[in-house]
Amino acid sequence: MKRSLIALGSLLMLGGTASAQKVAFEEYNLDNGLHVILHQDKSAPVIITSVMYHVGSKDENPERTGFAHFFEHLLFEGTENIKRGEWFKIVTANGGNNNANTSDDRTYYYEVFPSNNLELGIWMEAERMLHPVINQIGVDTQNEVVKEEKRLRIDNQPYGNLIAEVKKNMFKVHPYRWATIGSMEHLDAATLQEFQAFNKKFYIPNNAVLVVAGDFDPAQAKKWINQYFSVVPKGTPITRQTFTEQPITQAFKARYEDPNVQLPMVVTAYRTPSMKTKDARVLDMISSILSDGKSSRMYKKIVDEKKMAMQIGAFNYTQEDAGLYIVYGIPMPGFTAEDIMKEADAEIVKLQTELISEREFTKLQNQFESRYVSNNSNVEGIAENLASYYLLYGDVNLINTEIDIYRKITRQDIMDAAKKYLNPNQRMTLDYVGAKDKAQN
Fold first, then answer.
1. By CB neighbour count within 10 A (0-12 exposed, 13-18 middle, 19+ buried), where does 136 fall?
2. Per-residue pLDDT tens for 72-124?
3. What CATH class does 6-229 carry?
4. Where do the domains of the chain lie?
5. At 346, is the secondary structure helix, strand, or coil?
6. Which end of the chain is more exposed for a tag (fewer CB within 10 A), N or C?
7. 334: alpha, beta or left? (left if phi > 0; alpha if psi -120 to 50)
8. Are 39 and 211 in contact (CB under 8 A)?
9. Helix (H) or strand (E) run with residue 221 in it
10. CA angle at residue 21 from 224 to 120, to 5 degrees?
11. Do 413 and 282 meet the contact criterion of CB atoms below 8 Å apart?
12. Which pTM does this prediction carry?
């Protein structure tokens, strides 16, 4: 759902500088519970208006999965004052672009405009919240759009179901167990009234944060925000359920057959804590040590030196309630999944038993300093970060201080986290294979 203009995109990239300067912002609440964050940046004549809603796939009925992602599409259908099919026309006619994305935890909508269209951007997001038109023709249209997206991005994409299969096997109770895109059968079975009820429950001001960032006058922005958003009625407060998974204490295996796959992949996965914890950040660092770039430990040894794998990687899949640490590899001909996982495990054991060198640690710290600067290098990135830190972490100023958490991580912390979370008895091994490999097992 992306519409972009090359010229405006170029301007946007000029909207930040490659330095770790403090991100200034102002935040306040409207009476209806909408949280507002303003970030002024006059380095380019661009503004971002964005709304993040605290609703993702984890908030769905297990019998109606896919609703949050569906609404990512549905809420572009139109409003009482924006005719069906006119949303993108209005944006592009005014020199802008827009997009939306959904995760297990939240849904994010935004518009990028030349700075003289601030009022338009604020009005459009208020319209989406106050006057969405949710009717059968819109539901039917977007149902086909979502099905096509699933076919292109997941069903017909090699390894397209990888994360979904890992989640399904690693979570037995938590709603993280289903794919963000959900079930097409569930969407087909849903009634119009169910879609309207989902909107009424979650797309409310007291479940959202509005961010305005870029080149604008704060006093004028506040007037327009009050004019267009204060009339949105407060919704019923949302009560969120807590889910507790039994710890994994014994290794187990799973298998998935994908007809699009020519080369089998092996995956190991471990459960990890919420992205809000220090340990989640330590695991981010462990991922960099193991597989960030060609000089990383796993790549250098398994791919470069021993030439045992075409690909090898490890990453920390972070989420609001709990996460996953995933290691994956594609063996070279002549080697097995067991061969490359043995080598990968050996690198994890090294982290569990040996402190990384001071030199490697310095390199690691520099990588995260650079990443921090990059994440806040343009206005669009800053806007999304401000929204995320408020809605998912509960602290907007983490946009400035999270790097300090990483700076305080020690070599001993890295060893301790590897020992705590990355043990063979705490994991699943998934064989992700092509359908032709069925007869071999």
1. exposed
2. 999 999 999 999 999 999 999 999 999 999 999 999 999 999 999 999 999 99
3. alpha beta
4. 6-229, 252-440
5. helix
6. C
7. left
8. yes
9. helix 218-229
10. 20
11. yes
12. 0.92
